[in-house]
Every structure is written in C-alpha cells, then in structure tokens.
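Lab notebook, bench 4. Still working through the backlog of constructs that have no structural model yet. Next entry is a single chain of 330 residues. Request: give me the structure tokens for it.
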Amino acid sequence: MKIAVVGDGGWGTALACNLIANGHEVIMWGAFPEYLSEMEQKRENVKFLPGIKLPESLRFTSSPAEAVEGVSIILLVTPTQFLRSVLKKFAPLPGISNILFVNAAKGIEKGSWNRISQIVREELGPVSYVALSGPSHAEEVSRQVPTLVTAASADMACAEVVQRAFMNENFRVYTSSDVTGVELGGALKNVFAVAAGIIDGMKLGDNPKAALMTRAIHEMGNLGELLGGEKSTFAGLSGVGDLIVTCCSGHSRNRYVGEELGKGRKLPEILNTMGMVVAEGVPTAQGALALARKVGAETPIINGINAILDGERTPQEVIKELMTRAPKKE
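Model written out:
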C-alpha cells in the first residue's frame, strides 16, 4: 500500500521504517520544510531518532495534498495538542473521507479533554479510524526489537487491515474493538509515568514504585471503565503493558519529567530544557482529572500528580497524603 505518515517525530519515523520493511510505499509529511530537507539529505532523524539510518525509499513533503495523493492509510503521529490544527490542513482535500486513518499518538486534548478519535471525528467527520497503541518505544522499534501492540477499531475489518499492514516478525499486532479503552490506556499511563519518575528522582527504591504501578492499574481501569472502556482492555497491551514500559524505561519522556521533579527541579525549567520533545503526560494529567470529576471517579494518584505539576504540593507532601488516606479494603 501507499501510506502517508503525518508527523516527523521519532515514533512516526520508526513506524515509517517498519512499514517500508513490509514493502509499503511511505511518504512523511511534516510542518517544517527545512527539517524535512535535512532528514532527506542526511537519511537520519537527528533531532528525534538519532543513529537510525532511514530507508532510501522514504519520501518527504510539507504539502498535505502531495502527502495524501493515492494513499490508502494516513498514519497520525502528531502530538495530541497540535493534532487539531494539523487536521484542519488535511480536511479540505478531495477524497480525504475515503482514506483509513490510523492514530499512533497518545494523549487527551487540553481544554476539550477529547480523545484523539473524537478530535478526528470533529475535524474530518465519520472517517474509518484505528487506534494503534501498546508498549512500543520508537528507539526500540527502529532497531527491530520484538514489540507487541493493539489495533483497535469499531470496524474490525479496518483493524485487520492495519494488523496486516504493520505486522512482521519483529512487530506483532493484535486487534480489538475497544477504541475508547485503548486510547485511554495510552493516554493515562503517561500521567502515572510522571509519578514513577518522581519516585526514581527521589531515590525511594522499589517498594513504592511497585505499589504505585499496582494502584495505577486499579485507578486507570476504574476511570477507564466509567468513561466507556472495557475493563479487560486495561489489563492488556495498551493498558498494563504500556504502563509498565513507560514507568520503567529510560526512553520515557514522561518518566524523565517526573524524575527531574523528584530531584527538586521546577516544571517550567524541565519542559524548557526538553525543547520540541513533548511529554504528553503533563497536559493529559489535567484532562484525566477533569474527566475523573465529570464521571465521579476516585483518582487519588491523578489528583496528587496534578497538585505537584501545579506547584500546589511537593512530592513529599503528596506521598504523605496518599500514605495516610483512610484504611480501605484492596
């Protein structure tokens, strides 16, 4: 197939390489022509995925019309907070409603608190849509490390198309019909990864991190179910699987933010040093809290992370509050 990758970050680059390895024709769209030109010349995404040689067949364009010409799939890998503005560039193009959209980004839109499938529907109408999510760092996928993910769609035929397109001996794809659960798992785990990083930054050890991840699974599942996801989804690759890798990996941007907070640095300073690299867990924490209040979910960890990110509480104060909550049955 001919496939357009919308976004020039590390994750989009890794998936583009995977698709080319499967024999597909891939063109990458980005908003910055100068950087696309640099990637094309160097055959490397120096800024977001250094050290990985890009296939010679990978093409680049900053023209939405050129990107979607003749494609069967549009793969969205744009950070959530910029997705709506990007989709507005593609919405007027002829035939756009007949293309299968696959989203591999994770997060909740600030302000609207929409999941990505909801943003896509608002901007493009009822297009065919698949959410692709799971424990899958770009740095490892690009090196062909064995990776497992889930492709979720309301139309199982679409999920199976994506399964066939992406799957190979190093990249295994399962299918699901629970778009809501898969998207929420991918978004919420970033919030808990910030908490895991705080524990690492404070050098508290293994006990509290294991406890955090266990209670995060419980909190994520309860909130996700109240928001329309299936409880079993949160026990799968896009839930527990993604939570584990993001809380434990040195590749995790969200865990890094938490680690620096745990060392005593302030959030604005941390984000400034990250440049264009996005930590989705920061805005998603606000969205998770807003959604929890909307459905009446009990989310003590999410509440505590927001208090730290907002500068209302120190990590030490939040940990004490969590530890001294009223005794409960597990």
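Notes after review: DSSP finds 15 helices and ten strands in the chain. Residues 181-323 form a domain with the N-(1-d-carboxylethyl)-l-norvaline Dehydrogenase; domain 2 fold (CATH 1.10.1040.10). Flag for follow-up if needed.
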